[in-house]
């Protein structure tokens, strides 16, 4: 526990962190990778170059300072980050390294304003926060390993099937090389994939959503051709090749609620966790009313459109709506074609039941529009679940309860 003096000192730095937070975290990563280049193997280099990781860490540090006297309020966000850490293989011994470089960055960026009192207070606060992460992650590591079909760290899988789903998305079907069972997962969760790209000194780890229902003896990852790692997977990984996977992780998962309708809203490759939720619900709660919405450029870029139409034909409780920005003539003959142009809230409001569980996944702008619109319609934050691909994004302007994944 932190003493009152330390708490007050941390809170006094909140305005400074709001102004200089990103500068501090940017310098932190520079120092971290300079002093410990081996940690480059854990980070998404693309997010580093775009500044997304720096912004996400800045938001986290700021939130910790604001809630330093009531850290239990940010426990959901802590668990969200801890899922990522567990899937990446972050270890307790790495936390002191992070703390040392974070304090050094604070001192450099703030200069004389970073007094000994402030640095000492942040050292104490960081240790408390790190201990919370270490404890939560320790429990997650244990759960991942002891569950039926579970394992520790990364496990070797073989690609047994590779299906082109659209112009930009390909599905990879993976089974463990050891022939043993694979852990089940909650629809909406992801796995981390570790790859070594030829002539690259670093390994790369990326998270990809599991896009099929659990319990089938394989994992399916439906991956968009976007970025260096996914391009490597599309171009160079073929049936028979191996990939190393973490056990499933993530807190974006389906609530098995038979009473409320289920509304799934996705754009682009954001459909991947939603399809897993859809397939699972139809299997386990066959009478639950489901409304599935998906936005894409057109049918050529939409994955699994044929499968969705097949499910619609088989299940009276499922309604699907495809929104194509530039539909082809063939698209407009599609039984699920519902809108030409971009999906907007005015149109969506005429199609959805408001007393439902909502799951949303897609690009940042799409997410903000959907979540903000649902709030305006009077949908409670407890009904809205969502997932971002990448570091946490600040959604304070549209959500008051939970932070992005």
From TrEMBL:
<keyword id="KW-0285">Flavoprotein</keyword>
<dbReference type="InterPro" id="IPR001433">
    <property type="entry name" value="OxRdtase_FAD/NAD-bd"/>
</dbReference>
<keyword id="KW-0521">NADP</keyword>
<feature type="domain" description="Globin">
    <location>
        <begin position="1"/>
        <end position="138"/>
    </location>
</feature>
<keyword id="KW-0520">NAD</keyword>
<dbReference type="Pfam" id="PF00042">
    <property type="entry name" value="Globin"/>
</dbReference>
<dbReference type="Pfam" id="PF00175">
    <property type="entry name" value="NAD_binding_1"/>
</dbReference>
<dbReference type="InterPro" id="IPR000971">
    <property type="entry name" value="Globin"/>
</dbReference>
<dbReference type="InterPro" id="IPR017938">
    <property type="entry name" value="Riboflavin_synthase-like_b-brl"/>
</dbReference>
<keyword id="KW-0813">Transport</keyword>
<dbReference type="Pfam" id="PF00970">
    <property type="entry name" value="FAD_binding_6"/>
</dbReference>
<dbReference type="GO" id="GO:0008941">
    <property type="term" value="F:nitric oxide dioxygenase NAD(P)H activity"/>
</dbReference>
<protein>
    <recommendedName>
        <fullName>Flavohemoprotein</fullName>
        <ecNumber>1.14.12.17</ecNumber>
    </recommendedName>
</protein>
<feature type="site" description="Influences the redox potential of the prosthetic heme and FAD groups">
    <location>
        <position position="84"/>
    </location>
</feature>
<comment type="function">
    <text>Is involved in NO detoxification in an aerobic process, termed nitric oxide dioxygenase (NOD) reaction that utilizes O(2) and NAD(P)H to convert NO to nitrate, which protects the bacterium from various noxious nitrogen compounds. Therefore, plays a central role in the inducible response to nitrosative stress.</text>
</comment>
<dbReference type="InterPro" id="IPR008333">
    <property type="entry name" value="Cbr1-like_FAD-bd_dom"/>
</dbReference>
<dbReference type="InterPro" id="IPR023950">
    <property type="entry name" value="Hmp"/>
</dbReference>
<keyword id="KW-0561">Oxygen transport</keyword>
<keyword id="KW-0216">Detoxification</keyword>
<dbReference type="InterPro" id="IPR012292">
    <property type="entry name" value="Globin/Proto"/>
</dbReference>
<comment type="similarity">
    <text>Belongs to the globin family. Two-domain flavohemoproteins subfamily.</text>
</comment>
<feature type="binding site">
    <location>
        <position position="190"/>
    </location>
    <ligand>
        <name>FAD</name>
    </ligand>
</feature>
<feature type="site" description="Influences the redox potential of the prosthetic heme and FAD groups">
    <location>
        <position position="387"/>
    </location>
</feature>
<keyword id="KW-0560">Oxidoreductase</keyword>
<keyword id="KW-0274">FAD</keyword>
<feature type="binding site" description="proximal binding residue">
    <location>
        <position position="85"/>
    </location>
    <ligand>
        <name>heme b</name>
    </ligand>
</feature>
<feature type="active site" description="Charge relay system">
    <location>
        <position position="137"/>
    </location>
</feature>
<keyword id="KW-0479">Metal-binding</keyword>
<feature type="site" description="Involved in heme-bound ligand stabilization and O-O bond activation">
    <location>
        <position position="29"/>
    </location>
</feature>
<feature type="binding site">
    <location>
        <begin position="388"/>
        <end position="391"/>
    </location>
    <ligand>
        <name>FAD</name>
    </ligand>
</feature>
<feature type="binding site">
    <location>
        <begin position="268"/>
        <end position="273"/>
    </location>
    <ligand>
        <name>NADP(+)</name>
    </ligand>
</feature>
<dbReference type="InterPro" id="IPR001709">
    <property type="entry name" value="Flavoprot_Pyr_Nucl_cyt_Rdtase"/>
</dbReference>
<feature type="active site" description="Charge relay system">
    <location>
        <position position="95"/>
    </location>
</feature>
<feature type="region of interest" description="Reductase">
    <location>
        <begin position="149"/>
        <end position="405"/>
    </location>
</feature>
<dbReference type="InterPro" id="IPR009050">
    <property type="entry name" value="Globin-like_sf"/>
</dbReference>
<dbReference type="InterPro" id="IPR017927">
    <property type="entry name" value="FAD-bd_FR_type"/>
</dbReference>
<keyword id="KW-0408">Iron</keyword>
<dbReference type="InterPro" id="IPR039261">
    <property type="entry name" value="FNR_nucleotide-bd"/>
</dbReference>
<comment type="similarity">
    <text>In the C-terminal section; belongs to the flavoprotein pyridine nucleotide cytochrome reductase family.</text>
</comment>
<keyword id="KW-0349">Heme</keyword>
<feature type="domain" description="FAD-binding FR-type">
    <location>
        <begin position="152"/>
        <end position="255"/>
    </location>
</feature>
<feature type="binding site">
    <location>
        <begin position="206"/>
        <end position="209"/>
    </location>
    <ligand>
        <name>FAD</name>
    </ligand>
</feature>
């Amino acid at each position: 526990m932190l003493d009152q003096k330390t708490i007050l000192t941390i809170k006094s730095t909140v305005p400074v962190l709001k102004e200089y937070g990103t500068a501090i975290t940017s310098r932190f990563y520079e120092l971290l990778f300079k002093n410990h280049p081996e940690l480059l193997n854990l980070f998404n280099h693309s997010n580093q170059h775009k500044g997304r990781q720096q912004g996400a860490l800045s938001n986290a540090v700021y939130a910790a300072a604001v809630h330093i006297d009531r850290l239990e309020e940010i426990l959901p966000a802590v668990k969200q980050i801890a899922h990522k850490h567990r899937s990446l293989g972050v270890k307790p011994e790495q936390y002191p390294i992070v703390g040392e470089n974070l304090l050094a960055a604070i001192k450099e960026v703030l200069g004389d304003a970073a007094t000994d009192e402030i640095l000492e207070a942040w050292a104490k606060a960081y240790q408390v926060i790190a201990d919370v992460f270490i404890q939560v992650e320790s429990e997650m590591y244990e759960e991942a390993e002891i569950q039926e079909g579970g394992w520790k760290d990364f496990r070797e899988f073989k690609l047994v099937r590779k299906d082109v789903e659209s112009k930009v998305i390909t599905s990879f079907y993976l089974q463990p090389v050891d022939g043993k069972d694979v852990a089940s997962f909650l629809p909406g969760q992801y796995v981390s994939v570790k790859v070594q790209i030829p002539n690259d000194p670093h390994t790369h780890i990326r998270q990809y959503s599991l896009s099929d229902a659990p319990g089938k003896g394989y994992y399916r990852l439906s991956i968009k051709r976007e970025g260096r790692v996914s391009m490597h997977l599309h171009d160079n990984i073929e049936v028979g090749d191996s990939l190393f996977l973490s056990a499933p992780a993530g807190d974006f998962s389906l609530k098995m609620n038979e009473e409320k309708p289920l509304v799934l809203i996705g754009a682009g490759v954001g459909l991947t966790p939603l399809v897993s939720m859809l397939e699972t619900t139809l299997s386990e709660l066959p009478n639950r009313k489901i409304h599935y919405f998906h936005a894409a450029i057109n049918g050529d870029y939409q994955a699994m459109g044929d499968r969705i139409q097949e499910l619609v034909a088989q299940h009276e409780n499922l309604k699907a709506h495809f929104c194509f920005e530039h539909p082809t003539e063939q698209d407009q003959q599609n039984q699920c074609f519902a809108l030409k142009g971009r999906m907007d809230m005015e149109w969506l409001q005429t199609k959805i039941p408001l007393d439902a569980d909502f799951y949303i996944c897609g690009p940042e702008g799409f997410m903000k529009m959907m979540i903000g619109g649902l709030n305006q319609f009077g949908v409670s934050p407890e009904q809205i679940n969502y997932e971002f691909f990448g570091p946490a994004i600040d959604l304070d302007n549209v959500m008051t309860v939970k932070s992005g994944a």
